[in-house]
Amino acid sequence: MRKARMAESSYPVGAHDYASGAEELERLAAALDEVPRGALVVSGIAVGLLMIGWLGMYFLVFLPRGPVG
Amino acid sequence: MALNEDAILKSELRWAMVVGGIVAVILIAILYAALAMHINPPSNREYVDPKTLHLSAEFTEANLGTRIDPNGQIVARIIATQFEFVPNCIVLPAQRPVTMRVTSPDVIHGILVTGTNVNTMVIPGYVAQVHTTFTKTGDLLMPCHEFCGLGHSQMMATVRVVPPEAFHPGPDGRIACGQRH
Lengths: 69, 181
Prior knowledge:
The structure holds 2 protein chains of 2 kinds. By secondary structure, chain A is mostly helical. Helices cover 71% and strands 0% of the residues of chain A. The longest helix of chain A is centred in the middle third of the chain and has 42 residues, at 21-62. Chain B contains 1 helix and 11 strands. Chain B has one helix at residues 5-35; strands spanning 65-68, 74-81, 84-86, 89-93, 97-103, 109-112, 119-122, 128-133, 138-143, 156-162, 174-175. In chain B, strand 6 and strand 7 (119-122) form a beta hairpin. Chain B starts with a helix and ends in a 6-residue tail after the last strand. Chain A binds chain B through residues 29, 32-33, 36-37, 40, 43-44, 47, 51, 54-55, 58, 62-69, and chain B through 1-3, 7-8, 11, 15, 18-19, 22, 25-26, 29, 33, 37-43, 115-119, 130-135.
């Protein structure tokens, strides 16, 4: 059953499915080309949300609460 | 983005610049709050003998609560003890600089006034002092925020912030909750 699904899928399931070593390297390079861009997008969104939260607390909560010392 | 060492190095350098920028923004914000808005952690270092607070000149029972000192400074003196604040309610004016002086005869306590930046530890042997200016009026809850024993959760007081025109100390310079002048 599992083997049948894998055979129908166009997604490569292992290195041995590739026609040649050159094609494998090409696919690998294409996938790795996307990795840094995706990492930057994910980390940019995460850090951006964190900064929005920090600045929101700073300007909307911390500063209006007045001086202390 | 080509997968080579140069491209990876460039992306790392760009990200490092972004992080450096964020750190700079946060540092500038902290310096602005400290220098322009006068928001700093309370840093008073002053010693007092916790065993003889009731005999001290400042923290005797009759001297607790809010008073206008001879130099015109509005000062609230409070003792934090297991498991209550003495006095339990203090009156302070809004829009005027005030000072809270708190100490403990027994264990470590802490105070915060809800909705304000007032927040400090109260350590036996030291006088915790906080200068602030309240911006809003109303009854503000002041709980103990440092676990001090089984009754900790019941240890809280009220800071009654009144409009400046409603702040009328008596002839002795004192004002307390429930007092009418």
